[in-house]
Amino acid sequence: MTEMILAAGGVVWREGKSSKIELAIIHRPKYDDWSFPKGKLDTGEELISCAYREIMEETGLNIELGPFLGEIEYESIDGPKHVSYWAAEVLPDSNEFHANGEADLLEWHDIDSARKKLTRDTDREILDIFSDSPFQAPKLIMLRHAKALARSEWQSGDEDRPLDNLGQLQAKRMHAVYQVFGISQIHTSDAVRCYDTVIGMTKTLKIEPIITAKLSEYTFEKNKDKSLDYGKELAELARTTGETILLCSHNPVLPRMLEQVSKKSDLDLPENKLKPGDAWVVFLGKKKVLQIDVIPAPTV
To answer: Which superfamily does CATH assign the domain made up of 139-295 to?
Structure first.
């Protein structure tokens, strides 16, 4: 039996004249098709990181990923392929496309024209999902700290409890996952395990972290409203500025915070709590949450 090829890519979009949405469609000479940019998963790579890398390699464009769109499967000349897709916004200071080993042409199309240009029906299915997705929505990322040392193994104060070996490895890989979202601000609980989860990422992204007790378990236990109000304030800040904001906190805090932020929405909230290193990416409409994506902890 032929092994399934895992791949990832995206629907790359920009605002054209009169704010009309335009999509990037590439021609791949190897397959002689018109498709959305995508490519094979490298060993040890996360799918979302693969999508980010492959889009930039095939188009040369600077991008920021948005909502997850879905998965398709089809038979290619290389074998059966399973592809995951995200929306991908072209940044204002983006580079230009140049022909490369994967794509020799790139054309911009409106949604109706793109539907006609695409070779595969499966790509048209992803296009339909994109059209209905909150691809223009600002994002609030709720990240649970990486794996920490067990409480039973730590004799000092809980706020000082550090990451264990697995958590340290997860923290080192956070940047590879979250660089794709164009984060502008990072807020973290003052607990050591939260700070150590994001500090490497803040240095690489050159973002000064905002460290606050309002995101800590201790504050949540003493005054739940103080923690929950902080989360609502960050959601409103993301809405008004359009910036992507990441907050790092704890399992008791994050599910309640998601409930508060999503109060006016009719979405079904995730049934499972976040595992260490997992996150929710919350896509925010003017008054309600439009989509919630789950980002698993980095593979180590």
So the answer is: Phosphoglycerate mutase-like (3.40.50.1240)
